[in-house]
Backbone:
C-alpha cells in the first residue's frame, strides 16, 4: 500500500522541458515524492551545466544519458516524471533503465515527427504539427535558429501571441542563454522522434494533458494512449501546456494520484 515506508532503492526523477530547467519542479510537494529522494538534473546546456556552444549538435539520447548518470546505481525502482521535451527524453530513458523503471508520468511529451506521420490524427492537430515543418527556417536555418525571431515563435506557440515580449527581462535573458540548445531540442522532436510505436510503456504509466493545450500536444498523448490501452490518461482542467509553471497545484494533484496508483512507497 502507498502508506508503507519507502526504501532507499526507490527514487523519483524529474526531467525538465525546453527553455526551463530543474526549477520547473520546485513547487512539487512531498505528496508526489511519497518519501522517495527527489532527483531533478539539468539537461545538456542548462545551468549549472555549461551552455551549448552555438553550432554544436546534440540529441535527446545525450540528455537521457545525462539524466541516467544522475540516478544512483542502487536505485532499483525509478519513478520518472517529465514535461514536454523532457517527456521525449524520458521515453529514451526507458531502454536505458530497463526493469528499473517502476512508473512513468508524462505531461504532453512532444513527438512532432511522429505526429506528422499519424494520418489518423485530428486534422487540426496535424496542421499544427506541420506548421513548423512547412516553415523550414524554424527547423533548419542555423543563422536564425535560436535567435530573437525563433524564440518568439517558439514561446508564443506554447503560450499566447506576444508572450516572449511580455516575459520579464531576466527570463528573456535566460532564454537567450539556452536558445541554441532549445533549437537543437526542437529539431530532435521533429527529426528523431519518428514513431509512436517505438516505445513500450511500463505498467504504471500516466499520460497527462491540459484542457487548453495546443491540439498537437493533446493529439500526441492520444496517439500514445491508443497504442497502450493500459495507461491512465489524465485530463487537467483549465490548464495549458505550461501547467508545471502556471498551475503546479493542479499538476501535483495528478502526479500524487499517479504515485498512489504506482504504490511508490512500497518499492
Residues:
Amino acid at each position: 500500500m502507498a502508506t508503507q515506508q519507502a526504501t532507499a532503492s526507490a527514487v523519483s526523477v524529474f526531467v525538465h522541458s525546453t527553455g526551463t530547467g530543474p526549477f520547473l519542479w520546485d513547487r512539487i510537494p512531498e505528496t508526489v515524492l511519497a518519501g522517495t529522494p527527489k532527483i531533478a538534473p539539468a539537461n545538456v546546456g542548462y545551468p549549472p551545466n555549461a551552455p551549448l556552444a552555438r553550432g554544436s549538435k546534440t540529441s535527446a539520447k545525450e540528455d537521457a544519458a545525462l539524466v541516467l548518470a544522475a540516478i544512483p546505481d542502487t536505485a532499483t525502482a525509478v519513478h520518472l516524471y517529465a514535461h514536454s521535451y523532457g517527456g521525449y527524453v524520458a521515453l529514451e530513458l526507458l531502454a536505458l533503465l530497463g526493469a528499473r523503471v517502476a512508473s512513468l508520468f508524462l505531461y504532453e511529451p512532444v513527438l512532432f515527427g511522429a505526429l506528422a506521420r499519424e494520418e489518423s490524427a485530428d486534422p487540426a492537430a496535424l496542421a499544427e504539427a506541420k506548421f513548423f515543418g512547412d516553415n523550414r527556417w524554424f527547423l533548419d536555418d542555423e543563422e536564425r535558429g535560436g535567435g530573437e525571431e525563433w524564440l518568439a515563435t517558439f514561446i508564443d506557440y506554447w503560450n499566447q501571441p506576444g508572450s516572449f515580449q511580455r516575459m520579464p527581462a531576466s527570463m528573456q535573458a535566460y532564454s537567450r542563454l539556452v536558445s541554441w540548445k532549445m533549437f537543437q531540442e526542437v529539431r530532435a522532436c521533429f527529426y528523431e522522434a519518428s514513431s509512436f510505436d517505438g516505445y513500450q510503456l511500463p505498467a504504471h504509466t500516466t499520460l497527462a494533458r491540459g484542457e487548453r493545450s495546443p491540439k498537437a500536444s493533446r493529439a500526441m498523448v492520444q496517439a500514445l494512449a491508443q497504442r497502450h490501452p493500459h495507461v491512465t490518461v489524465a485530463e487537467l482542467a483549465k490548464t495549458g501546456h505550461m501547467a508545471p509553471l502556471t498551475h503546479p497545484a493542479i499538476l501535483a494533484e495528478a502526479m500524487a494520484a499517479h504515485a498512489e496508483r504506482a504504490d511508490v512507497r512500497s518499492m
Q: What stands out?
A: Residues 1-7 have pLDDT under 50 and may be disordered. The beta strands are 10-15, 38-39, 77-83, 101-107, 205-210, 232-236.
